[in-house]
Every structure is written in structure tokens, then in C-alpha cells.
Specification:
The chain has about 120 residues and is of the alpha+beta class. About 40% of the residues lie in helices and about 25% in strands. It has 4 helices and 5 strands, in the order H-E-E-H-H-E-E-E-H. A 5-stranded antiparallel β-sheet has the order 2-1-5-4-3, sandwiched between helices. A hairpin with a 5-residue loop joins strand 1 and strand 2. The chain is globular, with a radius of gyration of 14 Å. The protein starts with a helix and ends with a helix. The mean pLDDT is about 90.
Length: about 120
Amino acid sequence: MTINYDQLTKQVLELDNKVRFAGVANSKGEMIAGGQKDGVAKILDGDNVKMSIHYALQKRDLYTNLAYKIGSELSSITEYEKVTMISIPINSNDLFMISTEPRADYLKIIDFVHSELNSQK
């Protein structure tokens, strides 16, 4: 069964009012689904978005090198002053990326995404 990334990103955007962005990036750093929540001011745009995706993919690749010792990465959370960035590996190519307002209930969001990904596999 194929995962419907467009549907999943819409569900995440509606899940919590603190979610700012939900999208899926492929291994080339291209956004293949999702986007910014309507009415939310962008913090990053253009090349800065590409850089953010690049760093998230790079972090996933780094932790893949340790998987034989610590297990596979399930999610990554980075809190900044203005935003919290969450990444969830879907498979070896695709990465689910979410940004929220600070102090969002990110464990609820991560659990929801894992549940939906597992049910669609």
C-alpha cells in the first residue's frame, strides 16, 4: 500500500493549532508533499528552506551510521527560540518534516504520524 503524503500532511496541519508546516522531502531535498499552514507567517523562505531540508537530511544520514548500535532513528526534535523542528524518517528516501510553535505537544504529533504511517504500510 502506498502512503498518501498529501493527506497525511493535511491531517498533521489540522492536528494541533501550533503546527506551522508539515511536508515530506525526498532524498534529493525536494518537497514532494505538504506545505505551510494558511495564515501563518513564514520564518524561512527560498534558500533558507532548502538549507533547512538539507540539514535535516544530513542529520538523518549521520544517525543512520549509528543505527547498528542504537537502533534506527524514529524522530528528531530540535527546539529553537522561534520554532520547533521535527523530522520523522519514513523510509530510506523520504523524510516527514514538521515545524511548530515553541512548546507544542510534539510527542502527540510524532505519535500520530507514526500511527498513520504504520497503518498505511
